[in-house]
Amino acid sequence: MTDVSTAPAKLALSRFSLSPILRIAASELRSLFVSPIAWLLLVVFMLQVSMAFVERFDHNVRRVAFEGGMLSSFTDSIFARMFSGVFDTAIINLYLYVPLLTMGLIARELHSGSIKLALSSPLTLRQFIVGKYLAAVGYFSTFAAFLLVMLILSSFLYVNLDWPYALTGLFGILLLAAAYASIGLFMSSLTQHQVVAAVGTLTALFVLAYIGNLGQRVPILADVAHWLSMSGRVGYLRAGLIVTEDVVYFLLIIVLFLSLTYFRLSAGRRVERTSSRVFKIILVVGTIAIAGLISSHSRLTGFADMTRTKMMTLSPGSQSALEEFKGPWSITVYANYLDRRSAGLFRPRNQRWHTRLMMDQFLRHNIDGAISYRFFYGPSPDGFVFERFPDMPLEEVAMRLAAEDGISSEDFLTEEDVVSALGESFNVYTTYFLIEWDGEARVLPIFNDAIRVPGEMEFATAFRTMIERPRNIAYVSGQGERSAVRRGAINHQRYVSQRDHRFAMVNQGFTVRETALDVPVSQDIDIVVVAAPQESYSDMQLGYLRTYIERGGNLVVMGEPGSIDPVAPILAELGVSMIDGVLTVQSEQFAETTIFSQYASDAAAFGFTPDPDKLDNPVVLDTAAVLRSLDSSTFTTTPVLTGPGDELLAIALERSINGTNQRVFVVGDADLISAGVIDSEELESENIANWTFVRQLMSWLTEGAYPLDDNRPAPTDNSTWVQPGQVVYLKYLLYGVFPLLVLAFGIQTIVRRRRR
């Protein structure tokens, strides 16, 4: 006898029993795998991702064999590399395969009329839809299974596969495939013609990829369009970062299209007023949209960086620098709309993508941030607009381009507005980022490199200088010294004060000025640089410099052969001398005066160590003089750079004086930081470590304050036992054995089923 109290519960469970769903799914899967197209697509998919895998793996093997190391992990380079990695290859091809595999899921039933028979049985419409959907997901799971096989194979090919990172990417592909399958199922329910369903699925996927560009001028529409957009949703998962907003997005998309499929198929099974049906659809769609918008709020978004090196999170150095950075901050992007190289990044349709790409790490660290965009027009540095619109006034050109992007002329600022916001020292030819926090403001430019926008280190440094002041560098001028502000191969301008150079000191926590020694050195100066003076200093000038040294100021002295006398009095104060004459070495490839120096054995004690990725890379000096360390009771001296024959080329000195820890660096060459050496095409193949050394020097002089430490834990999955000549066996396995086995099994399955 049935217990009356449990009967309603059993009835409710029976309406959504898993058994009928699984039977439907199993039946549909059998139908799929009887079709040659299912096996053919699986084999083609295997070949496509295998080609990407072998190409990336072979590239890494060759780098290990011929360059002696890897700059990044195998897992990242092979699987997650944008556009050419295994995961991106799989994602791109899913877009094409889904319409072919889902077009017949329901359209075939509608065309043959068998759907009436199926739904006249005890099977409910919900069970029918979910069963069909699970069949599609089950098929695409075979794609994921092959990717898993590749991951397992990778664990035998190179050491320390980053499993959490790789499995997060695989999880993202599964979510994407599941969302695609729900869209394909819905499109298949709309028509009896499978080709029409396939085209409709392709169209729907295209619309969802680009819908984020719509409604940019209306905030609420822009928010809805952004949430609906599928473009880039799997990007973070592919890169090893789980973001709750993206996971919820895929789940809601699945629920949305399964619900729409239910409404579509139920329309012909029951008599219902059109208004009632439309109301239900609006209610479901609205509920899902609201849930999506809520899940995308920054305060409700959770993150989990699954990478071993935490490369999707702020580096430890950045996090440490920003420990005291609390409260609301803002970034205003002032973009020259005629500078198409950079302004294109900030057009309305790209703004949300750009904000996420550039600032998400900081927003996760401190969610009280906001970014806004303002446009103006000024002369274009790249000349693009003048080629397209010759002899046309700048205002008219700007209005034409703005009209193409749906921007009103009222949205543009004048040059006076920009100068007022940024200051007189900033020209109006390019794009700037105005960072504001707690009454402080910093400005970063667009950089003249391939990346263009500021990165983690540049923003973190700007934030840090609002908490702890930047360090002030003064280059001594007036006696023919190397300049910090003038261009030229022998000068230091490019890596010291050139604002559009990413690694210049002005973008790494320093202010730079030139000063003559006709007056005492200002009290706010932290580092004085004397760079190869050509004329001797007067007694008064030496007196001002001596006073600076005696009060404990940090100092850099760079000499040059042939002009030893001007720096000799300064070096005498430090207990160092410089031998007049040029150090030479025999070389068939380079000039005799080009010296490939190495770190001295004791340099690590003062913080001068080779870059872990450039252990054998030299610090190049061009036309250098040899140093001698004299007996000194006041400074602790440590050799830093040595040349052939262990000649001393650079030395570090340190002492405690007047309550400060004074640091002095002396080198027998002023070309150490010149553009002519660091950017030399002749030295490019040598992978010189000059800039790494200069960063360490500035960090030592500022006791680690600037530049910020951007080091992360070194990847451990960067070595392999496979040699370049052995990759061919991997090709045989992935291009031949695996596809042939799957193809043979598929043919056997099709023949056996058709015989039955």
Question: Could you explain the architecture of this structure?
Answer:
With 756 residues, this protein is of the alpha/beta class. It contains 27 helices and 18 strands. The longest helix is centred in the first third of the chain and has 33 residues, at 125-157.
What is the strand arrangement across the widest sheet? 9-8-10-11-18-17-16-13-14
Radius of gyration using CA atoms only: 33 Å
Mean pLDDT: 86
Indicate the proportion of strand residues.
5-15%
Count of alpha/pi helices: 27
Biggest pleated sheet: 9 strands, mixed
Shape: elongated
* Uncertain segments: 1-15
Structural class: alpha/beta
Fraction in helix: 40-55%
Number of strands: 18
> What assembly state would you assign to the polypeptide chains in this entry?
single chain
Through-space gap between termini? 43 Å
Summarize the entry for a quick read.
This protein is α/β, with parallel strands linked by helices and 756 residues long. The chain contains 27 helices and 18 strands. The two termini are 43 Å apart.
